[in-house]
Design brief:
Pnp Oxidase, Chain A, alpha+beta
Length: 159
Amino acid sequence: MFRELVRKNKQLSTEECISILKSETRGVLSVLGDDGYPYGMPMNHWYNEEDGVIYFHCGNMNGHRLDALKKHDKVSFCVYDEGYRNEGEWALNVKSIIVFGRMEIVDDMETIIGITTKLSHKFTQDEEYIRKEIEQHSHRTLLLKLVPEHMCGKLVNEA
């Protein structure tokens, strides 16, 4: 069902893919949008090691993304690192991953609070700020859960 990488020597291990999901704060979530056009948007995410799913915090309970997901739950999510340059070379080496799967809407308030707290810790350790934000906004937070069906990663050299 899913294509394999053509350049196998560039393929990342599952462990490397998970490491990127855990360490990077953003990726691009793509859905099937209006009139069949792809719609990609940058999203913050949190990878749950316990069950291997990826969670997304959304501030809006409506809009293009949610309309698209109601029609078609299949998505892709692309994350890449900052990259590095080998000494003496101009080309950037970037590790990127793509996750394909199905998106679910989470409506359990306990889960929403727990996951948004964990996601917040990727950005700040200010517990008071996190607590206040969740108290003020959790009742209108949309939490999405990406259940992966396929994940692949590769190292790309810009040269």
